[in-house]
Design goal:
By secondary structure, the protein is mainly alpha-helical. Helix content is 55%, strand content 10%. The chain binds zinc ion (ZN).
């Protein structure tokens, strides 16, 4: 038996060592030997084995559950996640870095607004979010001020003019027709869209810092 595993022998060593000071040189040598031993494959394997039987605290278990649950979000959770990511993409797409802020203009009132961070801008839909066929259509969503987005139902007329200006005459009408076509978006499509828009956001972030734009162009 390895003497260090024998409790009696260990107790004997402890008594012998009591009150003894180990010289600095010897202490260094011991610590170096121990460090070296920790790199040995058998020692590593022993540590790994001990770790597999480890009992996690409730807090750690909860964190692990959350990480795991990311993989199986419900359809409505996936939709919420995509809404957030898609909104961020739209706000980034419709803004430019000015100093350390991203600034854009409201699509309907042309007011200058912040697009991310301490923002006043939102991703406003031309055709309501209620319609799934156009909910994630990039032509249907633009940076818009909170006032126009929340309270300006009448702004839809202005919005349709801007959409046609941006993408060509008839686009607003096409979106209107598309909205009324029923589509059933699958969970996999939501997952794919989340990935697509995550990448698009990364691409825009890569461009930062951009040279500041001439702010005088904003209404
Ligand atoms: Zn506005």
């Amino acid at each position: 038996m390895n003497p260090s595993n024998d409790p009696l022998r260990r107790e004997q060593i402890r008594k012998e060592m009591a009150g003894r000071t180990i010289p600095l040189e010897q202490r260094k040598k011991i610590s170096e030997t121990m460090k070296r031993r920790l790199d040995e494959p058998e020692i590593k394997a022993k540590w790994r084995k001990a770790a597999t039987g480890r009992v996690h605290s409730e807090a750690t278990k909860e964190k692990m559950r959350m990480v795991r649950s990311k993989r199986k979000l419900t359809k409505s959770q996936l939709k919420s996640k995509l809404d957030l990511i898609f909104s961020k993409y739209i706000r980034l797409r419709d803004s430019t870095l000015v100093g350390d802020e991203r600034i854009g203009v409201c699509i309907t009132c042309r007011k200058q607004i912040g697009a991310v961070g301490r923002r006043t801008g939102q991703a406003g839909h031309f055709i309501s979010r209620r319609f799934m066929s156009t909910r994630y259509d990039e032509k249907n969503v633009h940076l818009q001020c909170a006032r126009c987005n929340m309270w300006g139902a009448g702004e839809q007329y202005l919005y349709s003019i801007e959409v046609d200006k941006l993408y060509g005459a008839g686009t607003a009408q096409q979106l209107h027709e598309k909205a009324n076509s029923t589509i059933k978006i699958t969970e996999q499509e939501l997952i794919d869209l989340i990935e697509i828009y995550k990448e698009k956001i990364k691409d825009i972030d890569k461009d930062i810092p951009k040279p500041p734009v001439d702010v005088s162009v904003f209404g």
